[in-house]
From TrEMBL:
<feature type="binding site">
    <location>
        <position position="37"/>
    </location>
    <ligand>
        <name>NAD(+)</name>
    </ligand>
</feature>
<feature type="domain" description="Lactate/malate dehydrogenase N-terminal">
    <location>
        <begin position="7"/>
        <end position="146"/>
    </location>
</feature>
<dbReference type="GO" id="GO:0005737">
    <property type="term" value="C:cytoplasm"/>
</dbReference>
<dbReference type="InterPro" id="IPR018177">
    <property type="entry name" value="L-lactate_DH_AS"/>
</dbReference>
<protein>
    <recommendedName>
        <fullName>L-lactate dehydrogenase</fullName>
        <ecNumber>1.1.1.27</ecNumber>
    </recommendedName>
</protein>
<dbReference type="InterPro" id="IPR015955">
    <property type="entry name" value="Lactate_DH/Glyco_Ohase_4_C"/>
</dbReference>
<feature type="active site" description="Proton acceptor">
    <location>
        <position position="180"/>
    </location>
</feature>
<comment type="pathway">
    <text>Fermentation; pyruvate fermentation to lactate; (S)-lactate from pyruvate: step 1/1.</text>
</comment>
<dbReference type="GO" id="GO:0004459">
    <property type="term" value="F:L-lactate dehydrogenase (NAD+) activity"/>
</dbReference>
<dbReference type="GO" id="GO:0006089">
    <property type="term" value="P:lactate metabolic process"/>
</dbReference>
<dbReference type="GO" id="GO:0006096">
    <property type="term" value="P:glycolytic process"/>
</dbReference>
<feature type="domain" description="Lactate/malate dehydrogenase C-terminal">
    <location>
        <begin position="149"/>
        <end position="318"/>
    </location>
</feature>
<dbReference type="InterPro" id="IPR011304">
    <property type="entry name" value="L-lactate_DH"/>
</dbReference>
<dbReference type="InterPro" id="IPR036291">
    <property type="entry name" value="NAD(P)-bd_dom_sf"/>
</dbReference>
<feature type="binding site">
    <location>
        <begin position="12"/>
        <end position="17"/>
    </location>
    <ligand>
        <name>NAD(+)</name>
    </ligand>
</feature>
<keyword id="KW-0560">Oxidoreductase</keyword>
<dbReference type="InterPro" id="IPR001236">
    <property type="entry name" value="Lactate/malate_DH_N"/>
</dbReference>
Length: 326
């Protein structure tokens, strides 16, 4: 019998990395989990702490602390590095200089070490960092994926669920698209409640809910991260579980439809940019990009969001390499 060992790596074992690692162990997603951090002593402590818990988790995942290059053997590397996780003025874009510098440091080293697997990136600003990983890694675009608007879309579904009397968010299909940031937009034209369009569902149930306040729901979902951030100083479990879900979908070739930040080459009218759109996620990473025909206003906002991301990508490439995105 041939033996397939599922190997997942995490680079950056802080708030987010630890939440992802815990989810991986509790859901038996990997046979071997490799963790790496610039602070290798702390990472070793985390690895040993996780190893102590294996007997009472459903998995027998072996956990190792490794230097960065030790991650090159993994099928999937989850990226949760950052220079600082605090964002005083509330924009993820403020992290760009620090996290771009980390990308320029670690991606060439992993390339040199022979990493040929799939990157899943949570590090903010997520879309720009995803593009930089693609640009620096030499990997095909299907193998470089940002979590993008996946977390925002869960927040959106939860807000819709609450407005509709608690209907299970898993029975709601609703996506935030564009930037994992302030310019993201809800694709209201494609919201479905158990397959029924939201307009039809609202009309059928007008005596129970009336018309949803879409602007308020969208705005709450868009900014929900800050409500958590200002109370506990970070967000970690939503995204940690999301990273684990991405790893599981890839390793199991699950072919889930999920929002993710991916490299666009003409899809949604955009090129040379990474932005959040619905994809099919499986063994090769991005198996397919779903093309929603957005309403005119949604497409306009999506274009503005993508242009904003592209502006920061171009600025970063110009500062670091004296070139713009190709
Ligand atoms: N995409 C999303 O939906 C979300 C993204 N995030 C982002 O995830 C990132 C991580 O956040 P936290 O875990 O709270 O930060 P943290 O500060 O707790 O952890 C970051 C870790 O990265 C390590 N690190 C820094 N430079 C490194 C390098 N060159 N090589 C290896 N390790 C290095 C640090 O030592 C630290 O352990 C941030 O960029 C944050 O904004 C957080 C929540 C949601
Ligand atoms: C911090 C962040 O990006 C979030 O929770 O959405």
């Amino acid at each position: 019998m041939s033996e397939t060992v599922r190997k997942v790596g995490i680079v950056g074992i802080g708030n987010v990395g630890k939440a992802a690692a815990s989810a991986i162990l509790h859901e038996n997603i990997a046979d071997e989990l490799y963790i790496s951090d610039i602070d290798s002593e702390r990472a070793k402590g985390e690895a040993w702490d996780f190893a102590d818990s294996i007997e009472v988790t459903p998995s027998r995942t072996r956990v190792f602390e490794v230097p960065l290059e030790g991650l090159a053997q993994c099928d999937v590397i989850l990226v949760s590095v950052t220079e600082r996780s605090q964002i005083p003025q509330g924009s993820r874009l403020e992290l760009l200089k620090g996290t771009a510098a980390i990308a320029y440091d670690i991606v060439p080293k992993l390339r040199e070490a022979g990493f040929k697997g799939i990157y899943v990136i949570a590090t903010n600003p997520c879309d720009i960092i995803t593009y930089l990983f693609y640009h620096l890694s030499g990997l095909p675009k299907n193998q470089v994926i940002g979590t993008g608007t996946a977390l925002d879309s869960m927040r959106l579904r939860r807000q819709i669920s609450e407005a509709l009397g608690g209907i299970d968010p898993r029975s709601i299909s609703a996506y935030m698209v564009g930037e994992h940031g302030d310019s993201q937009i809800a694709a209201w034209s494609h919201v479905r409640i158990g397959g029924q369009s939201l307009d039809e569902y609202e009309a059928e149930n007008s005596d129970r809910f009336g018309k949803l306040d879409r602007d308020k729901i969208e705005d709450t979902a868009r900014h929900f991260g800050w409500e958590i951030h200002k109370r506990k100083g970070n967000t970690q479990f939503g995204i940690g579980n999301q990273l684990a879900f991405f790893a599981k979908s890839i390793l199991n070739d699950a072919r889930n439809v999920t929002p993710a930040s991916v490299i666009l080459e003409g899809e949604y009218g955009q090129k040379d940019v990474a932005a959040g759109v619905p994809i099919v996620l499986g063994r090769d990473g991005v198996k397919e990009i779903l093309h929603f025909h957005l309403s005119g206003k949604e497409q306009e906002s999506f274009n503005a969001s993508a242009e904003l991301i592209k502006g920061y990508i171009d600025q970063t490439l110009a500062e670091r390499e004296g070139t713009a995105a190709q």
